[in-house]
Write a structure and sequence with these properties.
The complex is a heterodimer of chains A (348) and B (79). Chain A has 17 helices and no strands. By secondary structure, chain A is mostly helical. Chain B has a single domain, classed as Glutaredoxin, CATH 3.40.30. In chain B, β1, α1 and β2 form a beta-alpha-beta unit. Chain B is globular. Classes of the chains: A mainly alpha (348), B alpha+beta (79). At the A-B interface, α4 and α6 of A face α2 of B.
Chain lengths: 348, 79
Amino acid sequence: MNTVTSSLQRWPVRQPAVFLALAAAVWWGIYQALAPASEALVAALPVDRASHLGGALQFFLYDTPKVLMLLTGVVFVMGMVNSYFTPERTRALLAGRSEGVANVMAASLGIVTPFCSCSAVPLFIGFVQAGVPLGVTFSFLISAPMVNEVALTLLFGMFGWKVALLYLGLGLSVAIVAGWVIGRLKMEVYLEDWVREMPRTSAAFEAADSTLADRVQAGFAAVREIVGKVWPYILGGIALGALIHGYVPEDFMASFMGKDAWWSVPLAVLMGVPMYTNAAGVIPIVQALLAKGAALGTVLAFMMSVIALSLPEMIILRKVLKLRLMATFVGVVATGILLVGFVFNAVL
Amino acid sequence: MDIKVLGTGCANCKTTIALIEQVAQAQGVAIELEKVQELRDIMGYGVMSTPGVVINGKVVHAGGVPSREKIAQWLKVQA
């Protein structure tokens, strides 16, 4: 009995290519069936489809599995990609490069390199030790937590590809420009002394040979860890969205978060600083704001601020950055996010 | 067996410690488990992602919580 179940569990690892092809097909099939399935389910219940409850229910029954499936798929694929772009490889790609191009690379690599905010500091120091320029390291540090696959997937699944693409583009821009600006300010002296005294290390590394099977396992581990941690927030967020779609009147938020309120953007950025949640936790709030009239620029600014300027991360970063550099970092990033919010609201 | 878990104290680091203790107990292996939380000391091992695991002076893991199978393997090899 034990060997049958365990060999069943092991087959994706023994036949990774077959597993991937099969999984993709099954995933796609289920995904296409979600909308009709949710309608059929609501029709079978003693609820009037045209009522508030009916509308809210259908929304919830369709969106919940849809978003969960999207997230599982994306996290799995990113788990596989992350197993390639280890911090060591990213560091080797960035070490010694001149700024400008390196800022763009760093911000882009921030998307595909695995990053947990408690690793922010070891990673930061590791980069600096190997000769990655300070500004480039900052580009990475800004982009990594902010432009992550969970945020992008949830934005895509719940608000459409345009919003997701916007967040991606603007997030990268803030990371690139802010990092570049900090680099130009030549503030290396404001690193804590013990950091500057750390021995130089070489960025060269030996890539461990990873097979496709290893990467599939990494994908599974990522799904267990991320989706396992984040699904309550998603359920909560969609339930909230369903309620709002069904019950809260339009324009409720527009009065104080709409485009005309110029102070809404700075307020949103300021509100974001003391808040820290992971990318999924902020989505219910984004959902509530967007659905009822808040301007898109303001909401994106808020979301970026919550994730990129998190108080817990700053407390940890204070151990390696002197106050002046810390303040510069917060100031430059906040300004970038503010600009994003304003420009957006003005243009759309 | 001397095991050090490197981390600044986030949830993943705590989970890693608990997991190692569990597996060691289940396998009946005697270990000396130490938490390394000072950044300076963590950097001394050259890890860039926490949690990190160091066994008898060698870094065996960095980044994310290690799986039970992995931990069991480490304990078997060293014991």
